Amino acid sequence: MPRPTGRVLTLLELLQSGGTRTVAELADRLGVEGRTVRRYVDQLIDLDVPVESVRGRYGGYRLAPGYRLPPLMLSDDEALAVLLGLVAGRRAGLTTTEQTASETASAKIRRVLPKHIARRLDTLLAALSFTDQPGDFDTPDAGVLLTVADAVRHRRPVSIRYTDRDGRRSERTLHAYGVVAHAGRWYVTGQDARIGEDRTFRLDRIADARTLPGSFEAPMGPGPAQRVLSGFATAEYRHAVTLRIQGTVEQIRAHLPAGIASLAEYAPMAGEDRAAERWLRVELRAERLDWLPPVLAALDRPFVIERPDELRDLVIALADRLASHARQA
User: Fold this and answer.
1) Cα–Cα distance between 254 and 232 in angstroms, integer?
2) What are phi and psi for residue 38, nearest 5 degrees?
3) Among 78, 94, 135, 218, which has the highest number of CB atoms less than 10 A from its own CB?
4) pLDDT (tens digit, 9 = 90+) per residue, 140-149?
């Protein structure tokens, strides 16, 4: 039969799973009477675990927000999931403040892991490989991230101090629609209230965020992630590229994702065969063009370059080089 201390810890684990638990439910799970459940609750309260009583027909007990995190009861699989999440987050650059925060969190959990779970984790990490090199990203301040997220949730304007990629500093009022993690960085997208246009900002370039009075209505249409990707695809760069590619959205997106290019249906011109496999118009912006010919070759679909002529010359030059290499014995 479990010792009383073990039942108290089991009670804590049940409460940590969320929601309100009735006395009858807790008594049944613990195999004790109702008055014993109340005694166990008193023991948790004595340990400064913030348990509150909920009155009424569907009342019982639940954990209230406390001034410190109560002891966590993790199963084997839960512990592995948390640690793997920390490893993957560090690898992808999706951490806040300093890298040491996730490292110290991992160390604290590993310190209390049972030996057999620690061995399983070490075995998994030893066998785990990544297809890309770890990124070296600037991480956002945790306070800024949480303030912006709170403004998103409650639809409150937020004042930010921002430094752009050229080092120019400005203070803006933002109606933030959402926080987006993309390619190892954190972004916030929303309307810049001063100019009335949608903008996307890197969170690690925000030095300070302060919630303002008032509220706003979120716009209809694409979600925050799609807005960020569309913003990347239409950003101002040196070259504006327009292509027509014959193929499916899936075939094109495999080589030109939404963060790089935008796709639209191509309406055939007069005299063109409308029954043929459909073509899609692809538009993108690029600072350089030399990476595009190999992408188009890898795509291996019929395409037409509408602009710029410089890209057509680069594709022809690549085709000539490949043909020359292929002729060599």
Assistant:
1) 17
2) -65, -35
3) 94
4) 887 888 889 8
